[in-house]
Write a structure and sequence with these properties.
- It is a single chain.
- This protein has six helices and no strands.
- The chain is an all-alpha fold.
- It has two domains: 92 residues, no CATH class; 49 residues.
- The longest helix is centred in the first third of the chain and has 23 residues.
- The N and C termini lie far apart (38 Å).
């Protein structure tokens, strides 16, 4: 049970802090300058935790095990971060931007899973999509 729970807790706590930090990014700073510092810190923490947690492993050998997804993920994360910074700068409230983005994402991923991973769409998911659409309308009016 704990193995299922703690990753969600990490995601939720990280997302809370993420939204606080993103909303608090100074409006005067170029978002790419802020993101450059953010990812320099992230790289330093990633390197440090690799060496702490992967005793005896060669980081260059580990780099060699990656594929295209690692590189694309780097670009995609910049889009994600930039989207949130711009959403907050353009007036989105913290209590609606994340909910709106995540509901839209959840619905879109149902179709991505259906098309690319051949996962089945259920009647419950269709009902959920309808409810989510209504929720989006209600939360944004």
């Amino acid at each position: 049970m704990w193995s299922m729970l703690y990753p969600i807790m990490i995601i939720v706590i990280s997302n809370i802090l993420y939204n606080i930090c993103t909303k608090s990014t100074p409006a005067a700073v170029n978002p790419f300058a802020a993101l450059s510092i953010t990812y320099l810190i992230a790289a330093a923490v990633s390197f440090a935790t690799f060496f702490i947690g992967a005793k005896g492993k060669n980081i260059l050998a580990e780099f060699g095990k990656t594929n295209w997804t690692t590189f694309v993920l780097g670009v995609v994360i910049i889009g994600l971060e930039l989207g949130y910074i711009l959403a907050y700068r353009n007036g989105w409230a913290m209590n609606t931007v994340s909910v709106t983005a995540n509901i839209t994402l959840a619905v879109a991923l149902i179709f991505v899973a259906l098309i690319f991973y051949k996962e089945k769409i259920t009647a419950k998911q269709i009902a959920g999509i309808i409810l989510c659409g209504g929720g989006l309308v209600l939360i944004n009016i």
